[in-house]
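Explain this protein:
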Amino acid sequence: MGNTVAMLTTMMLMTGCVTIKGAYQLSAVDAAGKEISTGLALTAQGRGIYSVRNALCQRYPGATVIIKDSKTGEQLIGESPFKCR
C-alpha cells in the first residue's frame, strides 16, 4: 500500500512539472471549420493560452479552439484542437 501511494504521488508531481513555454496564436472555428474569430489577433505566452482559450469558449460556445506555435505554425500537441462546450 505504501509503495502504491508513493508511486501515485511521484506521478502527480511529475505531471505538475510540465510547463508550456513559448508564444502561441489562438483562433476559433465553427463545426464546418470556418474561422469565427476573424478580426482578432489573439496571442498568448506560455500558460496564458488557457485564459485566452477559455475566453474564446465563453464567446463562441461549441467552437473549436486552435492553438498554434507562433514560430513554427504547428498545433500545440495535447491542447489543440480544443472543443468548447
Notes: DSSP finds two helices and four strands in the chain.
